[in-house]
Amino acid sequence: MSFTLGRPRLRSVPSRGLAAAPLLLAAACGSDVEDVPPDVVLARHVHTDLYDAYPGIPSPYGDRVVFADYAADRRSLTVYDVATGDRVVTSTQGGRSRVTWSPDGSRVVYVDRHSDRHGVWTLDPTTGRESRIVDPGDARIDYPRLLTDGTVTALRYAGADTAWVAYAPGPDRAASVVVGRAGGWIAPVRSSDGRSVAYLRATGGRADLAVTEIASGETRTLAAGLQLGWDRRVEWSPTGGALHLAAAGIDDSLFVAWRVPVDRAPAERLEHSGRDVLAVTPLADGRVALSVYHTRTAVGLVPVTGGEPADVTTAGSTSAFLPSWHPAGGGLGFITFSWRRVRMPIDFDLGVLDLDAEGAPAGTVRTLLSEEGEDYGAAWSPDGRWLAFHSHMVQSDDIWLVPVGGSERPARLTHFGPGADTGEPDWSPDGRTLAFSSHGPPLEENPGSVYTVAVDPPTGFAVGDPVRVPLDGFEGYAMGARFSPDGERLAFYGRSFEDGRVTVYTVPAAGGTPTAVVSFANGEPYSAPEWSVDGTALFYSRNDGFGPFQVWRVDIPTGATEQVTTGVLGALQPSVSPDGRTLAVTMREAAIEVVALATGSTVAEDGSGGW
Known about the structure:
Layout: E1 11-14, H1 21-29, E2 40-46, E3 56-58, E4 64-71, E5 74-81, E6 87-89, E7 96-101, E8 108-112, E9 119-123, E10 130-134, E11 140-146, E12 152-158, E13 161-167, E14 175-179, E15 185-190, E16 196-203, E17 206-213, E18 219-226, E19 235-236, E20 242-247, E21 256-261, E22 268-271, E23 276-282, E24 288-303, E25 310-311, E26 319-325, E27 331-337, E28 349-354, E29 366-369, E30 375-380, E31 386-391, E32 398-403, E33 411-412, E34 421-422, E35 426-427, E36 433-439, E37 449-454, E38 467-468, E39 476-483, E40 489-496, E41 502-508, E42 515-520, E43 530-531, E44 537-542, E45 550-555, E46 561-563, E47 571-576, E48 582-596
Parallel strand pairs: 1-22
Antiparallel strand pairs: 2-48, 3-4, 4-5, 5-6, 7-8, 8-9, 9-10, 11-12, 12-13, 13-14, 15-16, 16-17, 17-18, 19-20, 20-21, 21-22, 23-24, 24-25, 24-48, 26-27, 27-28, 28-29, 30-31, 31-32, 32-33, 34-36, 35-36, 36-37, 37-38, 39-40, 40-41, 41-42, 43-44, 44-45, 45-46, 47-48
């Protein structure tokens, strides 16, 4: 008998915060309640990408935490020493994922997906040395686990066959099939006694949690209807009596931690501060560690001369990003949304905030455009009549146009359709052309290109099909496009195929050989470089693979650079005001905290024992 993870069947187990709430309760009740130590943040990692925020995984003893992250298109690993805060970062190109630890905590274990490195690897968290311990040959493997005796278990994919296999210790690493029919399995992990394997089983867009007895093949489904995050894992409790995982039940709007007893007792859920929990790791000392996702975005204003941006949009609960200016300078447009990783793709809308004559916010955020699906990148035409934006209406991935303040339905300017990935548009100074980037279908060999589409200003109709701007000699992903103030050139980001480095380029608006302006390790790929009003400089976002993004300025004639924004939240996606004095930026926090809950610090709402 199985059950579905929904609210009616479960005990809710709240997490204590960092404040000493037990002392307050004891004083109020006059009881002898024992003081419980607070939860402990083991490590905090600022991610380089807003969406691909992967959980931190602590070692069994909680002395180190490893994070997988994108940095300059390398799937890097960062290992933090909890006591000192020191970190070790991988430096080579790789496709590292499915990160776990060896049972004694001496090595990080993971699979590398790059074709020339594919296999199971380990990382020494002290020296940073990486070693491949399983080479699967022509097969593909996933979800590796290193056992105490040196055996490696993993899912092996060979053609249409999927098996859960064990690679024996020793230099030859002979493989044996443990379970031959493992199609649809996700994240299998063996119990400490070696008798059972727990795993997630994909079913109808969701997943079930199951345990199979290896000798008999008997299978029990412990939970059904789970929605999983991007990094999927299951962990056995130290005693083997329960399974731990992060998932969303049917009624959940957040990913939460779950403890699911293998004896089919009611599952327990653990929420933490209204945040998404991306991974749950039982520690050797009996504590439970949660990998908690912290993210928020807001639009801020900062002088072009530099400083820390001032938040102007987060008076309510709605997040905002990717700002753009009204051509008269009297308002800011941006994307609004309520962030939940469970709700992907997100339903974006376009919001607007009016500004007074001094450039200060006037009033509250109001909706500028709300269509079903993703409305992205509001761009006013120079005369203020039209609003161009990217949207997924009618299952497209295209540029649309709508009159500002009118009742007409948006008109579709391009027809890339599903499967493409189109960025936000930018108007030419004369209001007759839109520039943008797109990659993927329907065009073959289109990893990322810059396009323009001509627009008839009186009617808002497209004048012909979009035209791919020739980028002679350029090899890489072209991302974003911005017209120079005189309309003669376009600026865009280019990401190298070879090493993932990002370069800011300019190119004649009609196409030609791009000119590299500045190159750096890691760039923000969701917008485009922004011109200064005099056309002599470009603003861009970078973080060199670690820490929050900040906005930088590069002088085009000399190549000299300077950091413009400061602040712990970071800043990206710069947009220059029409008078050239102010930058609107996206202020963003995208970090993971790994929190070790105090032993005995979880109590069920009905007063019975917690975890």
